[in-house]
Amino acid sequence: MRKNSIKNTRINAEVQKELANLIRSEIKDPRIAPMTCVTDVEVAPDLKTCKVWISTLGDDEAREETLKGLKSAEGFLRKQLAMNLNMRNTPELRFLKDTSIEYGMNMSRLIDEVSPHNESDDDQ
């Protein structure tokens, strides 16, 4: 199975949907922020490992605590994935911090800062 095959794309989507549901409804760890989102999932073609990108609303400390909480709940999440999804292997989960939303907000802010200067130059 190639990395970008249709089967692998479907597996990624199913694992992402299931993990998002489990994190939202099943995990009761107080370290995990309430506004935690699974932004992307990449399951290896051999179904042995899975990278899970997590985005959390809040400061850096809240993000780090959320990652620690998810790493401690990795066994539970893997067991639930095995029960809910019919896969040959249940992948080992690795949680990574996703900063793309922050990057996009920062770029938008920078563009907004530059835009009024360009409008005033056009008026003259």
Structure description:
With 124 residues, the protein is of the alpha+beta class. The protein has one domain: GMP Synthetase, Chain A, domain 3, CATH 3.30.300. The chain has helices at residues 6-25, 60-72, 74-84, 100-123, and strands at 36-43, 49-56, 92-97. A 3-stranded mixed β-sheet has the order 1-2-3, with helices on one face. The longest helix has 24 residues, at 100-123. The protein is globular, with a radius of gyration of 19 Å. The N and C termini lie far apart (60 Å). The mean pLDDT is 87.
Secondary structure elements and their pairing?
Elements: H1 6-25, E1 36-43, E2 49-56, H2 60-72, H3 74-84, E3 92-97, H4 100-123
Parallel strand pairs: 2-3
Antiparallel strand pairs: 1-2
Helix pairs in contact: 1-3
Features:
124 residues; alpha+beta; GMP Synthetase, Chain A, domain 3; three-stranded mixed β-sheet; 4 helices; 55% helix; 18% strand; globular
